[in-house]
Amino acid sequence: MSLKLLGKKCIVTGGSRGIGLEIAKRFSSEGASLLLLSTNNDHLAAALPQLSTVAPDQSHSVTQFDVSCGRNFTDSDLPEKWPHKINDVDIVVNSAGISQAALLMKMKPENIDHLLRVNLLGSILMSQSFVRSMVRKRSGNIINLTSVLGSRGVTGTSVYAASKAGIVGFTKSLAVELGSKNVRVNCLSLGLANTDMGRAVAPAVKDYFMANTPLGELVSPEDAAEAALFLATNSKITGTVLTVDGGFIS
Q1: Residue 189 in this model has a pLDDT that exceeds 90
Q2: How far is Cα 45 from Cα 41, in angstroms, rounded to an integer?
Q3: 197 lies in a domain?
Q4: Residue 206 has pLDDT above 90, yes or no
């Protein structure tokens, strides 16, 4: 059986838990070398052994990095144990994100700022960190995770929704900028997922999702990972939003 990502080097933000980790696990099972980014060293240490090694040239590592820091990710941020550089990276998965469970009138400005820095600015700056080398190689793939809440209003999610709608606009425009250089940029848009973050949403929000999801189930991390793999391996898809939501926005 051929490995779909054999020899590819991939960085996953928010890679220590949830959807990000599941994507990393799936990509590693197809031969990719993974670097997981997160702010939590304990979660990273627990995530690393879960990655598969199915090819002799694979190498996996983890490093602490806060995507809300307001700067690019550089070679100096790479861990010594990962034998690759920024120029070697083929795939970037921007999965880091935080949620919102509050009415706008009750949110503090600093919390709004932090959410936008993590969910939107973090993805923009991480993408910027790698596009120059991808353009030089005329090869690269960026997958930005977004949410169906960016296109359908739900009470108590206004700033989160704005950040996720922003990801879609960013992705589509960047795909146009980079398409002639053979660099692909896509969105994976998810419904309410069966992760720690998904299970922590307010009961009213979960009830709303379930009442309006035809398939009547939360999105599994495994389903999200399969969709991400599809985006990573189909060479003719760019500027698209692949939705995995059980029919929520239908």
Answers
A1: yes
A2: 6
A3: yes
A4: no
State how far the alpha carbon of 194 is from the alpha carbons of 26, 153, 220, in Å.
17, 20, 5
The CATH number of residue 37's host domain is 3.40.50.720
C-alpha dihedral, 79 to 135 to 29 to 51, nearest 10° = 20
Candidate list 130, 160, 170, 248, residue with the active-site label? 160
pLDDT at 185 over 70: yes
CA distances from 77 to 58, 68, 85, 132 (A): 20, 14, 10, 17
Decide if 114 contacts 69 (C-beta within 8 A): no
Q: What is the CA radius of gyration of the chain?
A: 17
Is this model's pTM higher than 0.70 or not? Answer: yes
Answer yes or no: are the C-beta atoms of 175 and 192 closer than 8 Å.
Answer: no
Number of domains in the chain: 1
160 carries an active-site annotation: yes
CB-based contact 147:160 (threshold 8 Å): yes
* pLDDT tops 80 at residue 1: no
User: How many angstroms separate the CA atoms of 83 and 145, rounded?
Assistant: 27
- In 61-189, alpha helices (H): 109-116, 122-137, 158-178
